[in-house]
Design brief:
The chain contains 7 helices and 9 strands, in the order αβαββαββαββααβαβ. About 25% of the residues lie in helices and about 15% in strands. A hairpin with a 5-residue loop joins β4 and β5. The radius of gyration is 19 Å and the shape is globular. The protein has a single domain, classed as Alpha-Beta Plaits (2-Layer Sandwich). The N terminus is likely disordered. It starts with a helix and ends with a strand. A 3-stranded mixed β-sheet has the order 8-1-9. The protein has a two-stranded antiparallel ribbon with strand order 2-3. A two-stranded antiparallel sheet has the order 4-5.
Length: about 240
């Protein structure tokens, strides 16, 4: 027996997906940044960022500004709905009064709650640990936004113009920090890390946290590296010194 209704539904979905790809960015999909798993017997890379809160100051927004420029994140003066993939937070120890300022973005968790709740597979994690959103199949349900314990995901409320070809975006979809995957694919440093280094503060370090001989792993071993909400056991790839 032929499943006419099923075939019809599949045809509608295929047409909708094709339309979404054209609407978001012709010829460009985030799935192009998907990866094959590491070959058997070869150590898997896991990219991460180490942030030294002792070197990060409240008045510096170099990382935030660099991210906005890299991805064309236009601000409309509405803090609750404007896109911001990285934001600065200041926390104060009530006992000592000591304050720390530091950036928070998608934590690129080893066990990402956003991926677990996504009904379409739009939220996915690459073998190298980078968590992405495929806007072409995101239906805007916002489950991932609610599931993220770090408040790191945004919802696109505005029509998007002048998109970057390496980061298609679309109204009505979820989005977050991509750890500048387009730069990583070219063996370059994420824009936020590069800007922090250029500013002279050098509070951010990017590297392979699975490699014990990498600079990021050595520094974490020597000076410690805390995870935000480690009790949730999401195992973030973004880690902090001085917290």
């Amino acid at each position: 027996m032929t499943d006419t209704a099923g075939a019809s539904r599949r045809g509608v979905l295929a047409a909708a997906a094709a339309f979404a790809i054209v609407t978001l960015a012709p010829g460009v999909t985030l799935r192009a940044f998907a990866q094959e798993p590491a070959p058997a017997g070869k150590r898997a890379v896991r990219w991460g960022i180490l942030i030294d809160t002792n070197a990060c100051t409240p008045d510096c927004t170099a990382c935030v500004d660099a991210c906005a420029a890299e991805f064309g994140l236009t601000r409309h003066g509405r803090p609750l709905s404007d896109p911001q993939w990285i934001r600065k937070l200041t926390v104060t120890d009530p006992g000592t009064g000591n304050s720390r300022s530091f950036p928070v973005m998608c934590q690129h968790c080893e066990h990402p709650p956003c991926v677990d709740v996504c009904p379409t597979g739009a939220s996915f994690k690459r073998p190298d640990g980078i968590v992405l959103v495929d806007r072409h199949i995101c239906i805007g349900c916002r489950y991932c936004i609610m599931a993220c314990p770090y408040g790191a995901r945004n919802f696109v409320h505005e029509d998007i113009v002048d998109q970057k070809p390496y980061a298609p975006r679309g109204k009505g979809t979820a989005e977050a920090c991509t750890m500048c995957v387009h730069r990583v694919e070219e063996s370059r440093t994420p824009a936020c890390v590069e800007a922090c280094n250029t500013s002279g503060r050098k509070a951010m370090l990017f590297g392979d946290i699975n490699d014990p001989n990498s600079e990021i792993s050595k520094r974490a071993a020597s000076y410690g590296a805390a995870r935000i909400r480690a009790d949730l056991r999401t195992d973030p790839a973004v880690r902090y010194q001085g917290l």
